[in-house]
Design brief:
The complex is a heterodimer. By secondary structure, chain A is an alpha/beta fold. Chain A folds into two domains: 4-9 and 42-246, Rossmann fold, CATH 3.40.50.300; 250-323, Alpha-Beta Plaits (2-Layer Sandwich), CATH 3.30.70. Helices cover 36% and strands 28% of the residues of chain A. Chain A contains eleven helices and 13 strands. Chain A has helices at residues 21-30, 63-71, 93-96, 115-125, 130-144, 159-171, 189-206, 217-223, 241-248, 290-300, 313-323; strands spanning 4-16, 34-47, 52-56, 78-83, 99-103, 177-181, 209-213, 226-231, 234-240, 251-258, 273-277, 280-286, 303-309. In chain A, helix 7 (189-206) links the parallel strand 6 (177-181) and strand 7 (209-213). Chain A is globular. Chain B has one domain (2-254). In chain B, helix 2 (24-49) packs antiparallel against helix 3, helix 3 runs antiparallel to helix 6 and helix 7 packs antiparallel against helix 9. The chains are: A alpha/beta, B mainly alpha.
Amino acid sequence: MAIVEARGLGKSFRVADKQPGLGGTLRHFFARRLKDIPAVRDVSFSIEPGEVVGFLGANGAGKTTTLKMLTGLIEPSAGAVEVAGFRPFRRQASFLRTITLVMGQKQQLIWDLPPLDSLRVNAAVYGIPEAEARRRIEELAEMLELGEELRRPVRKLSLGQRMKAELLAALLHRPSVLFLDEPTLGLDVNAQVRVREFLADYNRRTGATVLLTSHYMGDITALCQRVLLIHQGRLFYDGSLQELTQRLAPYREVCCDLAGPYPPEAFAGFDELESLIGQRLRLLVSREQLTATLSRLLSSFPVLDLEVNDPPVEEIIGRLFREGTVG
Amino acid sequence: MGRYLRSLGAFWSSSLAMELEYPLNALIELLSVLGNLAGSVVVLALFYGRGHGLGGWSWDEALVVLGIYTLLDGFTSTLLQPNLGAIVNHVRTGSLDFVLLKPIDSQFWLSARSFSPWGLPGVLAGLALIGLATRWAGASPALPTLLGAGLLLLCSALILYSLWFVLAATSIWFVKVWNATEVLRSTLVAGRFPVSAYPPALRTLFTLVLPVAFLTTVPAEAILGRATPPWVLASLGMALLSLTLSRALWRHALRYYTSASS
């Protein structure tokens, strides 16, 4: 039995169609023209209990909109969605007790007070007895390596500590379905790893289902066996991460600083050239070609500095769509 | 029900903790209440000092109205302003998402989440003025009269709340409604004086469109033992109607909520 099921899910937003400039503003003021912009189109998938699924896509691809439909914040304009046997948009109390939503760029903790005060509020709202709430806070705080921070005003916490406290607040009621929207946004590498480890641990211990969006490929590779790839509101890929990385992995990002300026024509022999800004060169090179390209680069130009990285997800996805290897 | 009471306890104790981080506010608020009250008394004294009455109300009776206005203004600062004023922000920043995902009535959360102790001096000053002015006016209300007046005061609080909530709820569509609530607050200043002091056209406006009459004049009549059944019934009806309306509008508005940014 799937715990999350979406069939033909779609959402379009009505937005104002305004021309720029004063004329446009005046016309817009007197005769508002509206148009429907589809944000999500015909998305279908199902997730089994206990799965950790990564939700990938560029900015504006429709990830967050889909999450909002799954959590019941907005009503789908088309299709059907069911989470833990509920229709989310009805927002029944028993549904809300089984899910949680964590958003990297919004926070529910009270800014001027220590996290413990917000946790008390949540315990009361969810009807968790005080002794039980204390026990859960202790257990989660230990898993998250939070201690004395829970007694300090939120505004005085580091971003990483704050995110961990947010997670604690979001998990106090023991939800069985977790929706995480960019939970590691803006965190440094260390804090990212902590959050990931915690999520993996939480999933193992409780068997909770996790659907997570992230910009960081690291989050996805560390946590998810399965990914959903969304592009321009459509679902493009649904399958194992392995299969996807086999398609994506061929590319490595090479950045190097040259000793002097060169015209773009100088790099005619390098098809992989992505950008040349000043003396900084960026290439996306397939894994098989990597050593050959590097040696060619090093022998043809005076290179001051060289880095080889996994390219950002957006870049790979963008490249994937340009080449039409997906879909 | 128990869960709501416990939530309310947690809401208010956390707001209290937050407000007490800024203790200077207490002093400022106390001064502003006293200043406002003194200003209103002076204006009132100007009318009566030259032998003008206010719509057939004696000086002491008019002070009762002023006391009720001060009480309601304190209630506004304690509960309405901190809660309903925050709704606009919730909508603008998208933090309304967290409220909607809590297994508790969202209107309850938004209306009761915060509590500002700085309005309490106003509440106390209002109560004191009502008590004193009632005695000066020569009325000695018996218990049933007091209970009736209390009920009518509750009605006026509910009407005021509903009006404000309806305006705040429209922020789901218009997002910026700061000004609208400011206009509301300044119109309600009209409630400082008995409604019969105004010209007939304004009197109608304050009774039917903006229910200023129900906010202060009707409860004052009740304390002074002059309440008439039609007004009492109208007040009850008005409270019930506006509360129902605010609830219906909120439910309707939520269908249009699109949740800001990503």
